[in-house]
Amino acid sequence: MLQAHKDGADIISASIGGPGGWGQGEELLTTVNKLVQEKGAIIIVAAGNEGSEGLFFGDNPASAKNAISVGSVEAQSIVAGKFKASTGKELTFYRTSTLNLSGEYPVYITANSTDDSSDACDELPKHTPNLTNHIVLVKRG
């Protein structure tokens, strides 16, 4: 991090560290805090790879007071829901949180194929209707 800043980097992104959190690992934390406070650098650090340890087990230097800690999660369970198409066919969908809707909503599907790994990654076609008050289904991936 020090070398990156010495080389002129204003934003430093790192995927380094080790178990700690809660202010442990003083040397790394001090380095991050000095770079931010004294030199104006923005420090982005991976939160760690110990997700199975729980919410409060972050790595250092990601736990530094002035660092931006970034992480990712992958749920071990997914909430399934059902909807009924206008054809009468009942379909299942999955989402990571509950969906509290009542009433009927039109469903808009952005791709006709489940093989499309870039579904809705680009601007939708100009003929796409106004999707306000619609349920929009986009393939995850």
TrEMBL record:
Highest taxon above the source species: Eukaryota
One Pfam family, short name: Peptidase_S8
The family database entries (InterPro entries) matched by this protein are listed as: Peptidase_S8/S53_dom, Peptidase_S8/S53_dom_sf, Peptidase_S8/S53_subtilisin
> Domain Peptidase S8/S53: where?
4-86
Q: Which Gene3D superfamilies match?
A: Peptidase S8/S53 domain (3.40.50.200)
Molecular-function GO terms, alphabetical: serine-type endopeptidase activity
GO biological process terms, alphabetically, are: proteolysis
State the similarity comment: Belongs to the peptidase S8 family.
- Provide the protein name: Peptidase S8/S53 domain-containing protein
Q: Which organism is it from?
A: Puccinia graminis f. sp. tritici
